[in-house]
Amino acid sequence: MTAQTATRKKRRIGWGQIFVNVALILLVLAWTIPTIGLLVSSFRTRFDIQTSGWWTVFPHREWTTVLEFQPGAEVDRDGIMTFEGASGTFEAFRAGMTSPDGDKRIIWIGNKRIGRVVVQEQQWTRGNHDFTTQNYQEVLGGRTYTLQQPDGSTVTVQGTNFVGAFLNSLIVTVPATVIPILIAAFAAYGFAWMKFPGRKVLFIMVVAMLVVPLQIALVPILKDYVTLNLNGTFLGVWLAHTGFGLPLATYLLFNYISTIPRDILESAFIDGASHFTIFTRLILPLSVPALASFAIFQFLWVWNDYLIALIFIGSKPDVQVLTQRIAEMVGSRGNDWHLLTAGAFVSMVLPLIVFFSLQRFFVRGLMAGSVKG
Amino acid sequence: MEEDTNNIQRRAPVAAAEAKTKGPLDWLATNLFRIAISLFVPLVTLAVLYAGFLFLRNSHASKGIVAIVAIAWGVGGVALLYFVSNWLVEKLGDTWRARIQPFVFVGPAVAILFWYLAFPSLRTFYLSLFDRTGTTFVGLDNYVAVFTNRNMFTAFRNNILLWIPFGALFTVVFGLIVAVLADRSKFDRVAKAFIFMPMAISMVGAGVIWNMIYAVNPNIGLLNAVYTGLTGNAPIAWKASAELAPWNNLFLILVMIWLQTGFAMTLFSAAIKGIPGDLLEAARVDGATELQVFFKIMLPSISGTIITVTTTVIIFTLKIFDVVQVMTGGQFSTQVIATQFYREYFTNQNSGFGSAIAIVLLISVVPVMIYNLKQFNEREAF
What we know:
The structure holds 2 protein chains of 2 kinds. By secondary structure, chain A is α+β, with helices and mostly antiparallel strands. Helix content of chain A is 60%, strand content 12%. Chain A has 16 helices and 8 strands. In chain A, α9 (234-257) runs antiparallel to α12 and α14 (322-332) runs antiparallel to α15. In chain A, 45% of the residues are buried. The interface between A and B is large, with 134 and 121 residues.
C-alpha cells in the first residue's frame, strides 16, 4: 500500500505537483484562518479589537500620516482649495481626496474654520504587536465587581470565572467518559462470551437504541431528575451521558471483544479462571485500542456537549461547564470580544492538545463515533 | 466456554444433594458468618457511596478538592459496584452463579438503557398526546400543530431544504477535493491534520469563531472587512439579517461544513487509498486525463463511502442544535427542528407540543440511521 502511494506520488512532479500543493495550502489556510483569528484576537486589548482587525497584526500596507498642518487664514474655505496637487471643495476634502499621482490621500479633519489637513501615504507597517494576557487573566481570574445600584445599595457580582467552569467540565467529563466505557465493556463481554436466556433479544434492543436521538429522552429524564433531586448534580449529568453513550459504546466494544480468538479464553477457563478474572486480566488489556479510541470520542463528545449540560445542569452557576459559560457570554456580552475569544480558546485547549498528541486514536474514535444518536 | 457450562451442570446436582442431607438450621448456623459478611459488604459500599454523594451535593470545599473527590467517587464507585456484586455472586453455588453472573455483567447497561432511552421514547410519545401542561388528552392535535405552525414550517424548510442539501453537498465536495489533493501531495499528513482540527472544537466554540467572522463591525468581522473593502458598501449582518433570509442560513451551514469536512476527508482518503493502483495506472497509460480518471474510476469506486458520508451528515444536520442556538438563537428565520423543540418545551413550557416535535425528529432520523448503521457494519470500525 505504501509503496503504491509512493509511486503514485512520484509520478507527477512539476506543474501538477505545484498545483496540488498550492490548492492544498489555500484550503488549509481557509480552514485554519477562523481559528487563527480567534487565537490572535484573544491576545489583543479590548481597544485594539474594536478599532482594527486582527489581521493587522501581520505586516501590511496601510495609510500612514506623513504630514499634518493647519491651513492658514488665506485659504478660501468656501471655494476650491488645492493641497498636494489635488483640488476640490471643503466637502470633497472632508470625504478624502486622492492626489493626482494617486499615492497620497488628503483628508480634512475637524471643522471648516480651525480644522487640520492630513496627508497620508500607503506605507508598510510591521503590524500591530501590542499583545496582552489581560483577557486571559480577566476570564480565568474570576474577579468580583462591586456595582452601585440605582437605589444606592451595592451588589457584588462574580466575574466570569472560567477556572471554576474548566474544573466543572473536567469533573463532568472524566467520569462521564470512564463510566459508560466500563459499563459497556462489561456488557459487551457478557453479550459476547456468556450464555444466558434472552441474550440475543437484549442485544438487539441495545443496538436498536442507537437510532434514538437524545432529544427525545430529555424531557422524561428531566422529570425523573426533578423527582429524584438529581437535577444540577454531577451524578445526574454523568448518568445522562452514560445513558446516551451506552448503545454506541456497547455496540463498538462488542464488535471488538467478540473477535478476540476463542482459544485465548478457553485456555483461561481450563486454568480455572472466573469470568471476572478473565474480563479484568485478559479482555480489558487486549481491548485497549478500541477502549482508547472510544474514550477519546466520548471525552470530546462530553467536553464539547452543550445541550445535555444546558438541560440537566441548567443555570446553577457553581456546576456550569465551559460550553454553557461561553454560550451565556455570547448572549449577555456578545460584543466583549476580548473576553469571548479568550474564553472560547480556554475551552478548546484540552481537546486540541488531545487532538495533536493522540491523533491516530482521535481520528479512529471520531470515525467510529460518527453514528452516535 | 462449552466445556465450562457442562461442568457446571454436572456439578449442580451434587451440590443440591449435599444441601438436602443437612437440615436448613445447620446450614444457617455454619453459614451465618458468610451471610452476615455478604449483607455487610454491600451495605457498607452503598453507605460509602451515599456519603460521597451527600458530600458532593452539599460541600463548600474548594473546587479542586471537589473535583478530585467527584472523579474518584464517580469512577471508583462504578468499579466498586461491579466488584462487590460480582464478589457476592461468586459466593453463590455454581448453579446460581452461572444463572446470575451474566446479569451482573449486562444488567447495568440494559437497565440504564431502558431508563434513559427506551422508556423515555414511549413517555415522550405519551406526553405528545396531551396539552401543554400534560393533563388533558388532545389526541393528535399537537402533531397537526407541528405541521401547520408557521415557525415549524420555517424550521422544516431550513432543516430539509437548506441544511441537508447544502450541508451534505459541500461537506462531500470539500472532503473529496481535500482527499484527492492530499493523495497526490507529500504534505498530506499535515494538510489533513489541519482540515480535521475543527472536529476537536465544540460547536459552541465554533459559534464564537464564526460569530467573529460574521461580525458587523468591519474591524472585527473578516467577511465584512473584505466585503466593504471590495465594494465600498455598508457592512452586512450576515447571519442576523431578515433581508437575507432564508439565505442567512447558509452562513450557519458553512460552520457545519467547516466542522464536518475533516470527517468526510478522512473517510474518502481511506477509500481512495483502497482503489487498486494498477487500475488508475492503466487508465493513465491509456491516455485518460486526470479529470477522466477522477470521474470515471475514482468516483464509482468510492460511491459507497460517498453515501455513508452523506447519510452521516444528514443525521447530523437533522439533529443540529448547538450551532444555531449559539449563533442566532433560532431568530431571523434560522430556527431548525431541534431549536424549535427547545424553545417550545423549555421556553414556552408547552410539553405536548415540544414532545410532538421530538417524536417527529425521531421518525425523520430513524430510516437514515438504520441505513447508516447497515453501512457502518460493513466498514470496520476499529
